[in-house]
Amino acid sequence: MTKLAEISLILGLALAVLAFGGAEPISFSIVEILLFGAAAWFLATSGTGTFPFSKKIVLVPAVLAGIVLLQLCPLPSSLFHRFAGREIPESNMHAGYLSFEPYATRTSFLILLTCFIAFFFAQVVSQDRGRQQFFIGALIALGTFEAFYGLVQYLSGWQQIFAYVKKFDLEEATGTYINRNHYAGFLEMILPFSLAWVFYEYAKLRGGRDSRTTFKTLMAKSAAQRLILYLSISVVLCAALIFSRSRMGILAAASSILIVCALVAISKFHGRMGSLLAAAFIILSVCLAVWIGPGPIVSRFQTVNEEYSLGGQSRLSMWRDALPLIKDHPFFGSGLGTFPVAYTGGQTAFLSQFVNHAHNDYLEIASDLGVPAALILFGSILFVLARAIRSSLSAERDFDRIVALGCAGSIVAILLHSFADFNLYIPANALLVSAILGLAVSVRGPSVHARSAQIAA
User: Fold this and answer.
1) d(CA 62, CA 339)
2) CB–CB of 246/301 below 8 Å?
3) Side-chain half-sphere exposure of 359, counting CA atoms within 13 A
4) Backbone dihedral region of 337: left (phi > 0), alpha (psi from -120 to 50 degrees) or beta?
5) Cβ distance 381 to 431 under 8 Å?
6) Verdict on whether the full-model pTM lies above 0.85
7) Cα(340)–Cα(359) distance, rounded to whole angstroms?
8) Exposed / middle / buried, residue 157 (Cβ in 10 Å: 0-12, 13-18, 19+)
9) Range 66-99 burial, b when 16+ CB lie within 10 A, else e
10) Is the dihedral of CA 95, 101, 103, 109 positive or negative?
11) How far apart are CA 81 and CA 221, in angstroms?
12) What span, in angstroms and rounded, lies between the C-alpha atoms of 150 and 135?
C-alpha cells in the first residue's frame, strides 16, 4: 500500500504541475480521478490497523470538509437567513445555500478533498524511509525540470508551454505554469529540499571520512558527487526563481533560505562546514544571476509602488474591498471558490476587469470559508511549522533533521508568498503544500530518552 500511495502521489503532482499547474479543470480532473481511485483502493484493501493517522491529524481536514458541506446543504428559510445574513435567492424560494455559487463550491471541494488525500498519502509514504527519500528526490527532479524549462524560456525567448504558445508573462520564466508568481511559488517550495539535501550529503560524506583521505579520493566518492549535484541543482532552482521576476516569490524564497541557513547555524549541523556550504550556495546563486543579467529583476522591484499604493488600481484596493465581504459573512463565508462572484457586490477597483482572486490567500480563505475556518487552517499550518523547526534542531537522525529542515523552509516560503498572491488556489501548488505538510507531520522528533538527556544537560 505504501508503494501505491507513493506512485499515485508522484504521478498526481507531476501531472498537475506539467498541465499548466492544474489551472485547467479538465486537466486537473485526471489528477483527481487518479488520487480518488488510489484512495478508494487503499481504503478497500487496508485494515484499520495500518493507518498511521491519529485523531488529531484527521480533525482539521474533517472540520474544513464539514464547513464546505454545510455551505452546500440546502437550508430552510429561517436557518438560511440566520446563517447567511441575506435573503433566499429567487431561484429557490423554499431553501437556500450558504454558498453564493454552489457549482463553484462543489468544484473547489473536489480539489480540497484531493489535497487531503495528498496530505495523508505523504504520511503513508513517510512510514518507509526509502520511499520517503525517493518521493523527495522525485520532487527535486520535477523542480529541476521546471527550472531548466523556465530558464530556456527566459534565455532563448521560446515562450511556449509544450505546444501551447503563451499569451501572458512573455519576458519571464514560467516553466509549465501560466503565471510567473505561481511558477515561483512552486520553485520556492522545492528549493529548501534541494538545499537541505546538500547538508545531508555532506553529513554522509563526513561520517565516512578517513583522516588519511586525500582531496582526490574524497571527490571520487559518490556522496561528494551527489553533494556537488544537489548544490548545482539548488543554484539552478534559485536562478529560475529569480528570473520568474516574481517579486514576492523572490522575497519569500530569500526568507526561507535565511531560515534554513539560520537553523543549520543554530543546530551547529556538522560544525562550520554547514555554514560554508550555505555561503557557497548564496554566492554561486548571486554570481549566476549577475552573469545572466539582473537588470529586468531590478526594474520589477522599481515598480512595486504601483501595485501596493493606497489609492487607485492596486492589490491594496482589492484587499480593502475584500474586508467588507468577510465582515458580512464572518462565520461560514460566502462559499469555497466563490470569491469572484461574491466580490462583485462591493467591488470599487478594477471595475472594467474580472477579479478572480483577492491576491491574498489569508483574506480569500477567510472570505470563502469564514474567519473560524481560516484560523483553524492557518493555525494548524503554523503548528506543523513549529513542529518541523523543532525536529530540524533536535531529531536524532540526520535524515529526519534534513526532511524537517526542507519542510520548514517550504512552509515559511509559501506562507509569506500567500500575503500577496493566491498560490493556495492553484491546484498543483495546493497539492504540493498538502504533501509537504504530510511530510512535516510525519517527521520523527527526539525520543523520550533523548529529551530527558537534553533536559538533564
Assistant:
1) 22
2) no
3) 15
4) left
5) no
6) yes
7) 12
8) exposed
9) ebbeebeeebeeeebeebbeeebeeeeeeebbbb
10) negative
11) 70
12) 23
3-state secondary structure of 190: helix
Q: Cα 163 from chain centroid?
A: 27
Q: And the C-alpha cell for 160?
A: 511556449
**DSSP annotation of 419:** T
How do residues 68-102 score in pLDDT, each as one tens digit?
Answer: 999 998 877 666 656 665 655 655 444 578 899 99
Alpha-carbon span 367 to 108, nearest angstrom:
14
Distance CA 13, CA 431 (A): 7
Q: What do you get for the CA distance between the two ends of the chain, in Å? A: 42
Please name the amino acid found at residue 435.
A
Q: What is the pLDDT of residues 204-214, one digit of tens each?
A: 877 655 444 44
- Which residue carries 477579479 as its cell? 355
- Distance between CA 284 and CA 280 in Å, rounded? 6
The DSSP line for 252-317 is: HHHHHHHHHHHHHHHHTTTTHHHHHHHHHHHHHHHHHHHHH--HHHHHHHHTHHHHS-SSSSSHHH
For residues 186 and 180, is the Cβ–Cβ distance under 8 A?
no
In contact, 242 and 250? CB cutoff 8 Å: yes
